[in-house]
Amino acid sequence: MEKQSQETSFTVGLFQPEDAPGVGDLFRAVYGEGYPVKLYYNPNELREAFKKKEVLPFVAKDQDGALIGVTAIYRSSPFERLYESGSGIVLPQYRGAGIASRLQGMLADRKLLKELQIEGLWGEAVANHVFMQKISVHMGFCEAGLEVDLMPAEAYDREKSAAGRVGAVIGFKTVKPRPHTVYLPGCYEEELRFLYEDMDDARPLEKAHAGVPADGTTSVDPTIYDFAQVARFAIHSVGPDFSEEFQKKEKEIREANKIQVCQAWVKLSHPWCAAAVEALKGQGYFLGGLLPRWFDDDGLLMQKILHTPNWEGVKLYSDRAKRIMDMAYKDWENVGGVK
């Protein structure tokens, strides 16, 4: 599983428990104690997360076995076999040697990913520059959405690359196909058909047509990201009381936390998903994009920004991403902007 570089003296391979202290040292060397995911600083917690397959790091080592780079995939969606790609760093003195590319290349090893029981990958490529977006596209990730104002500008103070909050282009890559019927809300049918065009896993597309079941129950699971001031709401099921229950849940979260961005995830495998989408639009949410395999079934990202978004700070690499931003901006205007 370990691969020797032919050009320089380093190897890349899957993290092993004995690598945990070196991972913490890497993050301290680059971020001090300031990296928001504290797991990487704690060897025992990192080993436990690796054992449970919650976090799967890949590491680069020099010829003496010292860690000089790391990237990781980790669970961050409701479906446990869809992993997010991120947390990539290389020691400054080794940058430009191809280490980051070789680490990312591990994510193209389908045999390895299947051995790890991974069925899909996704990632967030920041939109204050196009470098990571370009890498994502070249690695075969299909751009599926735009998270507006996802991160605070303070997260980029060290590199001085952001004058306001920073958005991210989200991309997905299939490891194990899972075709299944999805239902398109009428208000986003055109946009979703466009987003599905270039996906690497086929879907039968139908119009959302059903009413919410009278005996349905509403289930909403929130997650708070304090540093980013973001609240994410996973909508697992929708009942007749959805609009009132969701509004109540969001209000509770906003009153208890300093929130700038709200995101809502809607299942597209329910024929009555349009009812939830229309209710969210009525509460100021606008289109974010497509979330393939998010719940195992596909999801829809909607978002609400509690300030005037930093649209002018968004930098995009591809024509597809630019069209996604146009769709998001138009819908933001349609729902009335800041709520």
TrEMBL record:
- Name the species this protein comes from: Desulfatibacillum aliphaticivorans
GO MF, one example = acyltransferase activity, transferring groups other than amino-acyl groups
Q: Cite the InterPro entries for this sequence.
A: Acyl_CoA_acyltransferase (IPR016181), GNAT_dom (IPR000182)
Q: Which SUPFAM superfamilies match?
A: Acyl-CoA N-acyltransferases (Nat)
In its UniProt entry, what is this protein called? N-acetyltransferase domain-containing protein
Q: Where is the N-acetyltransferase domain?
A: 10-163
